[in-house]
Amino acid sequence: MLVDSHAHLNFKAYNDDREEVVGRCRQIGMKVINIGAALASSQSAVDLALSEPEMYAAVGLHPIHVFDEQFKISDYQGLIKKGGAKVVAAGESGFDYHHLPEILAKGAASVDDVKKKQEEVFRQHIALARENNLALVVHGRNGKDEPAAYQDIYRVLKDESWTSGVMHCFGGSESEAKQFVEHGFYLGFTGIITFDKIGVLEEIVKWIPLEKMLIETDAPYLTPEPHRGKRNEPAHVRYVAEKIAQIRGKTTEEIIAITGQNAINLFKL
Ligand SMILES: [Zn+2]
After folding, report:
1. Which residue in 23, 157, 171, 183 is deepest, having the highest Cβ count within 10 Å?
2. 39 C-alpha vs ligand 1 centroid, how far in Å?
3. What are the tens digits of pLDDT across the range 141-185?
4. How many A from CA of 231 to the centre of ligand 1?
């Protein structure tokens, strides 16, 4: 089954035509997990999940937003209670060192201050996942001068002995990919593999165990070829499956079946 394991139909990019986008997902018969990035968008993800049988939600505060609002775990507990079985993950949470300048401009005292805050909030998401038996959706992004986001994530996961989750839109090195897979994590692949010139992702796709692979759009972002430049949507996750199928010498339908089952297993859909 086609599953987009990471989308944001809850974002305002879909305010004008959400019904139509959701309708196209329904027509395909796919499942979609919409991911919260702050309290309001987590709330919208839950509402969407409650109104659509094939949509699910993750609730969390994105690392770029940790100085925009406080992560109050009781608020998120409330959303999990409200959403019941339709809330399948905590996140997205993790470390983002790419957006450090913007985060610093929001009132953080120093780079270390940002890192400390992101780590504190990340650990709270792990606590939330632990308490509610949820998967963890992890966001990692390195900065030009701060290349250790994935190493910091790995350190915290090890320290917390937390093994259930996905490194969404994985952008680390091959050796880091190996670390996360060995730790039990899934890696999420986006439309980037359809236009990536560096080739690290392709190398990872060549060896990653099929049962550790998820596909995602990160819609409205990261639109794959041949739709580059337009807003992304869950239906386009098929292009990610096509590219992976090419690399692995499988059919697109096989990759859709395998990654769909992986999502069902991880998120208990
Ligand atoms: Zn995302």
Report:
1. 157
2. 14
3. 999 999 999 999 999 999 999 999 999 999 999 999 999 999 999
4. 14
Q: What's the CA-to-centroid distance between 269 and ligand 1, angstroms? A: 19
Q: How far is the CA of 218 from the centre of ligand 1 (A)?
A: 5
Tokens 């060896």 belong to residue: 207
CA dist 244 and 256 (Å) reads 10
Cα 246 to averaged position of ligand 1 atoms, centre (Å):
25
CATH code for the domain in which residue 221 is found? 3.20.20.140
Give me 118's structure tokens: 């992101």
For residues 206 and 120, give the distance between their C-alpha atoms in angstroms, rounded to a whole number.
35
Expressed in angstroms and rounded, the spacing between residue 223 Cα and the centre of ligand 1 is 13
Q: Which domain holds residue 125?
A: 3-267
Question: Which distant-in-sequence residues (6+ apart) come within 8 Å of 193 by Cβ?
Answer: 201, 202, 205, 224, 240, 243, 244
Instruction: Tell me the C-alpha distance between 219 and 228, whole Å.
Output: 12
Distance 254 CA to ligand 1 centre (A): 25
Distance of CA 257 from the midpoint of ligand 1 (Å): 23
Cα separation, 228 vs 230, whole angstroms: 6
How far, in Å, CA of 223 to CA of 64, rounded? 21
User: Strand runs (DSSP E) across 86-155, as ranges?
Assistant: 87-96, 135-141
Helix-helix angle 111-132:73-83, to 10 degrees: 40
Residues with a beta carbon under 5 angstroms from ion ligand 1 = 218
pLDDT in tens, 21-39: 999 999 999 999 999 999 9
